[in-house]
Design goal:
With about 230 residues, the protein is α/β, with parallel strands linked by helices. Helices cover about 45% and strands about 20% of the residues. It has two domains: about 120 residues, Response regulator (Rossmann fold, 3-Layer(aba) Sandwich); about 100 residues, Arc Repressor Mutant, subunit A, CATH 1.10.10. It has eight helices and twelve strands. The strands form three sheets. It has a five-stranded parallel beta sheet with strand order 2-1-3-4-5, sandwiched between helices. Strands 6-7-8-9 form a four-stranded antiparallel beta sheet, covered by helices on one side. The longest helix is centred in the middle third of the chain and has 20 residues.
């Protein structure tokens, strides 16, 4: 049973999400403040965070960054509806974004997609796959990526982008295709955030590896390495 930490200062919303999540089989922990959420994350046992970025005590981005450090996926909840705010949250490590008012059924769906993506990524193969003369190694079973022998820590969304590109090396994937691969469903307005995930992915891979994730102007992205046989 996966455990979801709901961080929301409005009690009605917090309890609504708790009821819907528990109805769907999740264990739920709730926090009304960011400081309490940080304590919950430090204690461990959290599989996903539903995080209101507009917290009363500390900036929700601080909680988001801590969740990223301990490798817990985050779905951000906020009244901020602009694309710029969504991109800011995703740049700081959020894996999905829901703006208020929202449907609790949709939130539960997105929780399942993010957690399901992590499980399915680890179940695809028991063997690692290498690219570019073993420059890049992707181990689905362990959910690990290595660049020139160095492990690269990726968020679930960054992992999803890399695995999607590596599924057909050299093929150009549009942003819309990557949205569907990473999210698992249509999400209007999300395409621009793919650029943020690619930017973060490139930063973690390293500036001297610019040929691994290539941009095809006006089209999308592709893996610039061949599959090793």
């Amino acid at each position: 049973m996966a455990t979801v930490l709901v961080v929301e200062d409005e009690r009605d919303i917090r309890e609504l999400l708790r009821r819907y999540l528990e109805r769907d089989g999740y264990a739920v922990i709730t926090s009304a403040t960011g400081s309490d959420a940080l304590r919950q994350l430090e204690s461990g046992g959290v599989d996903l965070v539903l995080l209101d970025l507009g917290l009363p005590d500390i900036d929700g981005m601080d909680v988001l960054q801590e969740a990223t450090v301990v490798h817990v996926p985050v779905i951000a909840l906020t009244a901020r509806s602009s694309v710029e705010d969504r991109i800011r949250g995703l740049q700081h490590g959020a894996d999905d974004y829901v703006t208020k008012p929202f449907s609790p059924q949709e939130v539960v769906l997105r929780v399942g997609v993010v957690l399901g993506r992590q499980v399915s990524a680890g179940a695809q193969s028991v063997a690692a796959t290498t690219y570019g003369g073993r420059r890049l190694l992707i181990d689905d079973a362990r959910h690990e990526a290595w660049i020139d022998g160095r492990a690269v820590e990726l968020t679930p969304s960054e992992w999803g982008v890399l695995v999607a590109l590596a599924s057909v090396p050299g093929r150009v994937f549009s942003r819309a295709e990557l949205v569907n691969r990473v999210r698992g469903y249509e999400f209007a307005g999300y395409e621009r955030t793919i650029d943020s995930h690619v930017k973060n992915l490139r930063r973690k891979i390293g500036d001297d590896h610019g040929d691994i994730v290539e941009t095809v102007l006006g089209v999308g992205y592709r893996l610039g390495l061949d599959h090793d046989h």
